[in-house]
From TrEMBL:
Source organism: Microbispora triticiradicis
Coiled-coil residues: 265-292
Flavoprotein keyword on record: no
Protein name, entry field: ArsA family ATPase
Pfam families, per database record: ArsA_ATPase
ArsA/GET3 Anion-transporting ATPase-like domain mapped to chain residues: 1-159
Taxon lineage: Bacteria, Bacillati, Actinomycetota, Actinomycetes, Streptosporangiales
Gene Ontology MF terms: ATP binding; ATP hydrolysis activity
This protein's record includes keyword Hydrolase: no
UniProt keywords, alphabetically: Coiled coil
Length: 324
């Protein structure tokens, strides 16, 4: 795969997973471009960097010496590049920008904005150096949320109302060719919760209807199993005995008085019951995800948060599971 599009419901860690995927793909000496399309500077935050300009720049070294580059796409600058590429009128485009025409055009025709953004990403996928070699081994796009990913990527339909012939139409067809290519994969990030899982299933179905390639599902923030299955089952069924916990506390010297041990045991029993219910919910959601028929990869919940060290930990997890 040369283009990896990463989507997901808000709050699932979409940008974090996209950043980790870029690091995993770059491992071993490869060169990967990580693209942001929503203007949130999420990549800069993930790598603890100042806001990124509209240019491709190196932001990280992957395990084994690979390089990760980043690009925060600005639709206005992308339109100026488009005017230069197809019409040779970048200077006129800058004048239009000053009087607000560019912003006006992308406001009344939001499909054009998506074509410009996806077009810039597609150009990076196709780009070659003077020797004919690919500039980037892979491109990772931190894409819009699941709710609008199909419309965002379905550029041919979006531009149909703007132009049926001419450079814009030709450009949209070229972009569509890259996005629908067998070398492209659209991945989804989810949590083991009802709403993110349902949005993931809906997103997978919509992509398949529009003929766009579905990749894998990244299950983020997976909590480790803290108790054996037998104990979890008993807790979920209300059969977990707090008295046993009290005996264990006293035997371990953690509670001297019987009353104290009993109170602590009751509180711990409530925690166990909540954990058991959570484990049951996650088990059901995993079963729901099986309906998508896509590869699944688990990413652990990072106890210290998704800092730079955490990104490398997630990248290692992806590589260990064969996601790249």
């Amino acid at each position: 795969m040369r283009l990896h599009v990463v989507s997901g419901k808000g709050g699932t860690g979409k940008t974090t997973v996209a950043a980790a995927l870029a690091l995993a793909l770059a491992a071993g000496g490869r060169k990967v471009l990580l693209v942001e399309v929503e203007g949130r500077q999420g990549i800069a935050q993930a790598f603890d960097l100042p806001p990124l300009p509209y240019e491709e720049r190196k932001i990280a070294v992957a395990p084994g010496g690979g390089d990760v580059y980043a690009l925060a796409i600005d639709p206005e600058e992308a339109m100026l590049e488009y005017l230069e590429m197809f019409y040779g009128i970048r200077r006129v485009g800058k004048a239009l920008t000053r009087i607000g025409v560019v912003d006006f055009a992308t406001t009344i025709a939001p499909g054009l904005r998506d074509v410009l953004v996806t077009g810039k990403t597609s150009e990076a996928v196709r780009r070659r150096d003077k020797l004919g070699r690919r500039v980037y081994d892979a491109v990772v796009m931190d894409a819009p949320p699941t709710g609008r990913i199909s419309r965002f990527l379905n550029v041919t339909q979006e531009v149909a109302g703007l132009a049926r012939v001419g450079p814009i139409k030709n450009h949209a067809d070229l972009v569509r060719g890259v996005l629908a290519s067998p070398e492209t994969a659209v991945h989804f990030v989810t949590l083991l919760e009802e709403m993110p899982v349902q949005e993931t299933l809906d997103g997978v179905a919509e992509l398949r209807e529009t003929g766009l390639p579905v990749g894998g599902v990244f299950v983020n923030m997976v909590r480790p199993a803290l108790l054996p299955a037998r104990a979890l089952k008993a807790a979920a069924e209300g059969r977990f005995d707090a008295a046993e916990i009290a005996l264990g506390l006293k035997a371990a010297g953690l509670a001297d008085a019987s009353a104290g041990a009993s109170a602590i045991a009751e509180a711990l029993a409530e925690e166990v019951a909540e954990h058991a219910l959570r484990a049951e919910l996650e088990k059901r959601e995993r079963a729901e995800l099986e309906e998508a028929g896509t590869p699944r990869y688990d990413l652990p919940l990072l106890p210290d948060g998704a800092d730079l060290a955490g990104l490398y930990e997630l990248a290692d997890a992806l590589r260990a599971q064969g996601a790249v």
